[in-house]
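User: I'm curious whether this sequence folds into something compact or stays loose and floppy. Could you predict its structure so I can see for myself?
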Amino acid sequence: MSGQSEVTTWIAKELSWLSFNERVLQEAEDPEVPVIQRIRYLGIFSNNLDEFFRVRVADVRRLAAFSPPSKQDEYKALLEEIRQMVMKLQHRFDAVYQENLKELRRRKIYLVSERQLDETQTKFVREYFHSHIQQELVPIILDDANPIPELNDASIYLAIKLSSEQQTRFALLEIPTVRLDRFIRIPGRKGKHGKVLIALENMIRVCLPEVFRGIFPMGETAAYTLKLTRDADLELGEEVTHTFVEKMTQSLKRRKKGDPVRFVYDGAMPKDLLEYLVKRLGLGRLDSMIPGGRYHNSKDFMSFPNLGPAYLDNKHLPVIPVPAIDQAENILSCLREQDILLHYPYHSFNYLTDLLKTAAIDPAVKTIKASLYRVASNSHVVDALLNAVANHKEVTVVVELQARFDEAANIALSQRLTDGGVNVILGVPGLKVHSKLISIVRQEGSVQKYYSHIGTGNFNEKTAKVYTDFSLLTYDQALGDEVAKVFDFIAYNYKRHEFKHLGVSPLNSRERLLGLVETEIRNAKKGRECGITLKCNNLVDRELIDKLYKASSVGVPVRLIVRGMCSLVPGVKGLSDNIEAISIVDGFLEHPRVYIFRNAGEPRYFISSADLMTRNIDFRVEVTCPVYSKTLQHTLQSIIDLQWADNVKARILDASQSNVFKPRKKSAARIRSQLLTHKFLSTGKLPRMAKLEYRPRLKPKPVKVKVKTKTKK
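Assistant: Here's the prediction. I'll summarize afterward.
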């Protein structure tokens, strides 16, 4: 082609997201992963897919319906590509599910259907049905004269066909998994060893005639599972006023009536029942109708019980103490001596709640401010903030009511805080407050001093046990002053503060990020040390990606560790030769954002609440914070080095989205970064591994590239 090549330089974020979910499915396929955890990965895969349809597919569907005619075909084609990828993944899911059931059977753990029960087990199931299940069931008899009630898209349903000599009736029955466990242990077969589980819907199938309490004459009865996924978009006005809670409440009600975007059903469902449901539910040509197996809502596998020995599940890693805090008089006195970087779940989230509880009872503490996006249902963080009010502190809390799928919980939270005397701020008009900040003001002599928290994850005890995240606790007064200014911007968003240290979306994050990349470009051109490492959940912002392509083209080595969506394509000759990208999926969900710039031999380190997405950079309140402590910089660099060296759970991101595992030489030691991070934080020791090198590279000879851009939004 005489110097020209046709390549992809942009991957649609929806397709990249499906590639991420394939990496989750790979974990469910991996025989080295303990079998109970493999089953739970099936649940994570299914839960992810639910949200994908509720949010991302719903968005593309709207674009396909309402874009200008010249663009509609692009989005329709993207919808079809999504459907095809989902179907392939679903087939793999079904095969993995069957293989994992076989593995459970080898371990004498059985998940049985109603067809496999012996007489004793059937008797137990019938007794259990009448004592625990029947009172929870509310069947809906379908008829043409009345609309089908709105279906809950968090639930699964049995579509039931009741046949008698007189007529055929159809009914729907919601499976009450909110009130009852999905998987219930029953006695084993008589004379057989083993532990037996049955799904709740199969217990109902055993007693299907009793569901209808003898009202209808019945010949044959049959039940088929289905699941409906709805558009999760909330229509909200821009103004945040005293009526905002009412608007959010109404929007949540509208969500329950959102347009269907996916209909998954048992492939064995009779044609007459399927056609009736499709017609009555108003499913159209832009909706994904996906035939599947007998079981849906596999997200319930996330809580699948381990009935066998402990080794069938992931090994529990002990929490690592932080001696600097433990040996100090209290956590505030510790911070006066040094900055602390907590890394969850390796460190305990209790250190964070201890900070708030200590501040709540310290007579010298005057004010506490915090931003809450998602909190645990019984939050010790909230308890500490309410305790601070009881101890006569002035407490201000920013509650983000638009935290997707936590809106109802945050409405209740805001009311509880208000009732407890907390000054509650309900976000910023037109922006989501996604920053993870705490500002504590303490009177010390004649001056007031700041104690601050800047983090990458939510103030949530539950997720802090399974998400990796960073919390920076600091007495740095310059940082503390700017954290206080962020809270002032949230309260009075017409004010414009200067930020020398923090990157604050939507005020200066884009300018700051692009400027940092541009500095590395200048260093490369001057032959100075240069290099960029970005660890994030998602990289899809077009302007930043183009800037990274520019950096690569002049010789800047760029290393990307991206858990989820990555629209950038590494390795394109003449464009991204110097960009490498990996994704790590392991027992903990990788959630931190860490940005490192070599800066001519004086590296700059940042942690951030913001992903590299346009919405985070321009349309949310986010904070990116420099880490100035040399000790903490070493800790961050060591953790990133471990991740880059991972040759067990790291996949290579490339144009083909093949998700191949990073190759490991036979003689090379196994580097599983999450386990070795735990060891490093416990002992300070790192394994032998190749360090990340940041040398200026020769500018590659440019190649003319004919860009073939995939659909993007």
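Summary: Confidence is low (pLDDT under 50) at residues 1-5, 234-245, 247-257, 696-713. Residues 69-106 form the longest helix (38 residues).
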